[in-house]
Amino acid sequence: MKNKLHFIYFLLFTVYLAGCLPAPYYQKEEPVPQNAWNYNFRPKFSVDITDTIANYRPFFLIQHTQSYPYNNLWIWMYIKAPGETIAKKVRVNVPLAEATGKWLGRGMGEIWEQRMPVDLGDSIRFDHKGTYEITLEQNMRINPLPEILHVGLRLVKGGRRQ
């Protein structure tokens, strides 16, 4: 009975902490057709930015199977600011496994999920109010890229820029 009570307290404490975590400013995922990411499948995400002084930390979201054949994923991120006609293009390497082959992220059975921070450097800033369009494109040598179930984008709003 005492162990059961400890478990219930632990569970309630965990739920309490999860409720205290900051919600993302933006998050959306898109299912990959036939679980194979083709070059011509380019999910687009529209993000409304109203606070241009805040820092926004981008994350690439991915859900893949245990049978994914590589330990990383190269993607192109196209970021078009409000009022611009040409998007800035940034190539990003997303690690999915350790050198030993152990998957990063969370796994449940055959399915693995990751939320990987994306370092855009100083090339991309959200300096203008309005809607930004962010498009993702896989940039691996194989097409279509098998065993990819969902891809997405998450933005976490942080403190103020210096």
Describe this structure in words.
This protein has one domain: Jelly Rolls. The chain has 1 helix and 11 strands, in the order H-E-E-E-E-E-E-E-E-E-E-E. It has one helix at residues 2-20; strands at residues 26-31, 36-37, 44-49, 54-65, 72-80, 88-95, 106-108, 111-117, 130-138, 145-146, 148-160. The strands form 3 sheets. It has a 5-stranded antiparallel β-sheet with strand order 1-11-4-8-7, with no helix packed on it. A hairpin with a 2-residue loop joins strand 7 and strand 8 (111-117). The longest helix is centred in the N-terminal third of the chain and has 19 residues, at 2-20.
Please tag this protein with its features.
162 residues; mainly beta; Jelly Rolls; five-stranded antiparallel beta sheet; four-stranded antiparallel beta sheet; 12% helix; 48% strand
Report a brief summary of the structure.
Helix content is 12%, strand content 48%. The protein has 162 residues and is mainly beta.
Mean pLDDT metric: 85
Which range does the strand content fall in?
Answer: over 45%
Number of helices: 1
Low-pLDDT residue intervals, each spanning 5 or more residues = 9-18
Computed structural class: mainly beta
Helix proportion of residues, in percent? 10-25%
Strand order of the largest sheet: 1-11-4-8-7
